[in-house]
């Protein structure tokens, strides 16, 4: 029996199988807004992918298609804001033509441009340029497979049906998907229907991919939410209590680990359920998971078939949120535009109105596992709850990590607005937690603020308060501020550093890059024998093919080898080009424009180092005893890394290693040393090692060096010079004087020798070449 016609008008019209024309190919003015004829783009592929990803994230939780995003970016000359406003104007018109009323499930992104202004008029009306391009944009969007619906929750259900029909069509009606397979595959592709269809290879391929992630989330857990105690901020008291308590038995430690595992599994599944559905009411989803003993796949199936009614009551125990929240606001997520809780969906909006007929039998029956090769008993055993007396008493446990909601995997970029980055959401201990970006120096009109708003904190300051400025997506410093704020939240929540420690450039690597530049120069000289060296160097550049060849050759030469600074990991072409402008010898020999910011910073650091050794007063480092942890008020890895990020941001603007910074690094080194000395497990040594690498210290192998050797190396570096922080995710050269390897030490400058062959830190001068 053929499937029933769409209950929800506006589902994308299906194209005939084998049709050669595509509405996404800008080959005709009929299907392409502004009559753009596929003009070449001037942006790099990486930048273009970032813009597409940013565009898709901004449309969350709507169903999207990258094909339309690519066309709109191209027709708007890669202006992300103009393309977004054009897309949203067409979406609103399509929904209006279909008679879809605005519902509580319509996400803030549907109204973002109306509240924030953007390229629209003051009343949210479209501009003349948008009106002119609107018919072509509407035609472009209606020819996609997006099942348009103002209720984004229903739109996500409908796209599962659309994907199923694509699978049946592509397999000549010999295979199909289950409901949960279609939903979860769309979820993995960020609800991009074009990507979901293009990445489909076979049903078994989909099942194997889903099995790796979601089969483990079928195992039942204890029904009640497990609340784990996390470490507080009282470092002194926690340390004193830890010294007084008796050693735990193996049974108690095992029970505590099991309790933590169950709690983390519950948090992970709840965060994943929110990401899958896009619902604003997280507590309603938690109750459904509990009803299914935390079997996420079964909960997703219920959400598709029967829906999840909104929670309308208030629990006796009111977890996790402060007073002042009304009853109808409990269990709701935060709106990234207004900074207030989202509107609770109505019960009618939560009732599924799916595209297939009631008697549709084209779905495959649900399996016990996604893995097609899974064998054995299909009945899953419930994880027994730990005994009541198994509560952890170990105060040295790390803070239990949380699980992010709608995590943004890429950093914000200048000129790519995305207000969704203003809110950081995560689940921890069975509760929803959100942090909103609202620093004192900025104001946000969409939140009803202007430059005259009152301070958000009561903190007193000796300096007069500057008026807040409008957050500008085209201001690099504003973007950096937002980036650091997001990274700090990610560290505190997930408990890991996103940026790996940078690799120092050894002398062998520098020489290899110099040899490649020499080969390139000889190649150009052979082609132009009548030109002087300076004339050749003036016009010599490294093309894309050469960059890619160098990247491949470098990785074949060095990856896996041990150089000063550790085992070498792959470097990309951008890292090689960056080092060209930071190696003094290359800059001078081949007239490469030096990185003035880098050389100035290195020189500035040496001046500060010299000044610090001639200051009158106590040594800022020496006033701290390395073994006296109680006087530091630091709490180990998480607290220390957070402070490092704060100083990182502070130095980005001031670039000044003042006395306060010296004092801070003394505290950090003391905390690292205490971590190493008092926590001798392999895991804790790895934590100390990560901190040592991240702040720019040389390689210290805690697995092969003795405790005395590690401490002596730290003291040598402490007494030699202040530390330098890597900023802005730029791969920085790190030439530490305390390294034992000859390759990692600065080159000596012989008397009378050219500076280009000596101190690599000095800005080079172009040498005079004699013919």
Automatic annotation (TrEMBL):
Residues 20-36 have a biased composition (Low complexity). Residues 1-53, 102-127, 230-260, 339-412, 446-469, 724-771 are annotated as: Disordered. Residues 758-771 have a biased composition (Basic and acidic residues). Residues 110-125, 242-251, 356-382 have a biased composition (Acidic residues). This is Uncharacterized protein.
């Amino acid at each position: 029996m053929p499937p029933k016609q769409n209950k929800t008008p506006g589902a994308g019209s299906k194209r005939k199988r084998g049709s050669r024309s595509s509405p996404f190919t800008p080959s005709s003015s009929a299907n392409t807004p502004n009559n753009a004829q596929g003009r070449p783009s001037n942006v790099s592929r990486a930048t273009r992918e970032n813009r597409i990803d940013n565009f898709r994230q901004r449309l969350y939780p709507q169903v999207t298609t990258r094909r339309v995003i690519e066309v709109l970016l191209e027709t708007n000359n890669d202006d992300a804001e103009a393309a977004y406003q054009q897309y949203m104007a067409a979406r609103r018109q399509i929904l209006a033509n279909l008679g879809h009323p605005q519902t509580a499930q319509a996400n803030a992104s549907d109204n973002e441009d109306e509240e924030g202004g953007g390229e629209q008029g003051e009343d949210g009306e479209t501009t003349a340029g948008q009106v002119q391009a609107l018919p072509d944009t509407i035609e472009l969007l209606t020819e996609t497979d997006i099942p348009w619906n103002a209720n984004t929750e229903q739109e996500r259900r409908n796209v599962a049906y659309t994907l199923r029909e694509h699978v049946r069509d592509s397999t000549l009606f010999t295979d199909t998907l289950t409901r949960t397979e279609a939903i979860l595959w769309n979820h993995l592709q960020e609800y991009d229907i074009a990507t979901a269809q293009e990445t489909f290879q076979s049903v078994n391929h989909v099942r194997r991919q889903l099995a790796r992630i979601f089969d483990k989330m079928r195992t039942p857990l204890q029904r009640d939410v497990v609340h784990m105690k996390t470490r507080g901020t009282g470092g002194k008291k926690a340390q004193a209590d830890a010294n007084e308590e008796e050693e735990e038995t193996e049974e108690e430690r095992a029970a505590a680990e099991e309790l933590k595992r169950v709690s983390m599994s519950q948090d992970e599944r709840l965060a994943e359920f929110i990401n899958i559905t896009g619902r604003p009411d997280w507590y309603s989803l938690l109750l459904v998971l509990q009803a299914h003993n935390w079997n996420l796949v079964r909960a997703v199936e219920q959400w598709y078939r029967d829906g999840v009614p909104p929670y309308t009551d208030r629990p006796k125990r009111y977890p996790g949120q402060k007073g002042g929240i009304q009853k109808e606001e409990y269990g709701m997520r935060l709106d990234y535009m207004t900074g207030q809780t989202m509107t609770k969906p109505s019960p009618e909006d939560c009732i599924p109105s799916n595209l297939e007929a009631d008697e549709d039998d084209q779905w495959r029956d649900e399996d016990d596992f996604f893995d097609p090769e899974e064998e054995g008993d299909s009945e899953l055993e419930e994880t027994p709850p730990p005994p009541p007396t198994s509560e952890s008493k170990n105060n040295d446990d790390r803070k239990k990590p949380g699980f992010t909601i709608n995590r943004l995997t890429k950093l914000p970029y200048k000129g790519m607005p995305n207000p969704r980055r203003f809110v950081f959401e995560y689940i921890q201990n069975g509760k929803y937690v959100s942090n909103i970006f609202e620093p004192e120096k900025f104001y946000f009109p969409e939140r009803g603020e202007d430059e005259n708003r009152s301070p958000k904190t009561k903190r007193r300051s000796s300096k007069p308060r500057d008026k807040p400025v409008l957050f500008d997506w085209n201001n690099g410093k504003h973007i950096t501020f937002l980036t650091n704020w997001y990274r700090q939240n990610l560290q505190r929540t997930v408990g890991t550093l996103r940026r790996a420690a940078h690799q120092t450039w050894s002398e062998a690597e520098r020489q290899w890059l110099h040899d490649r530049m020499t080969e390139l120069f000889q190649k150009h000289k052979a082609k132009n024998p009548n030109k002087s060296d300076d004339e050749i160097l003036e016009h010599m550049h490294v093309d894309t093919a050469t960059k890619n060849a160098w990247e491949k050759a470098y990785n074949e030469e060095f990856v896996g080898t041990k150089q000063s600074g550790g085992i070498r990991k792959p470097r990309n072409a951008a890292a090689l080009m960056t080092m060209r402008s930071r190696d003094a010898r290359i800059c001078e020999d081949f007239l490469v424009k030096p990185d003035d910011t880098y050389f100035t910073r290195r020189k500035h650091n040496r001046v500060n180092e010299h000044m610090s050794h001639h200051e009158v007063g106590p040594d800022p480092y020496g006033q701290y005893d390395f073994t006296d942890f109680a006087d530091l008020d630091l709490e180990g890895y998480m607290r220390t890394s957070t402070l490092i990020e704060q100083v990182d941001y502070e130095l980005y603007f001031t670039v000044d290693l003042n006395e306060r910074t010296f004092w801070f690094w003394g505290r950090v080194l003391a905390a690292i040393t205490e971590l190493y000395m008092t926590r001798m497990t392999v895991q804790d040594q790895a934590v100390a090692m990560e901190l040592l690498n991240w702040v720019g210290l040389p390689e210290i192998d805690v697995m092969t060096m003795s405790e005395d050797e590690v401490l002596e190396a730290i003291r040598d570096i402490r007494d030699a010079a202040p530390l330098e922080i890597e900023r802005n995710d730029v791969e920085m050269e790190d030439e530490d004087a305390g390294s034992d390897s000859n390759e990692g030490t600065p080159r000596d400058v012989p008397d009378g020798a050219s500076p280009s062959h000596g101190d690599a830190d000095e800005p080079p001068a172009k040498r005079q070449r004699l013919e």
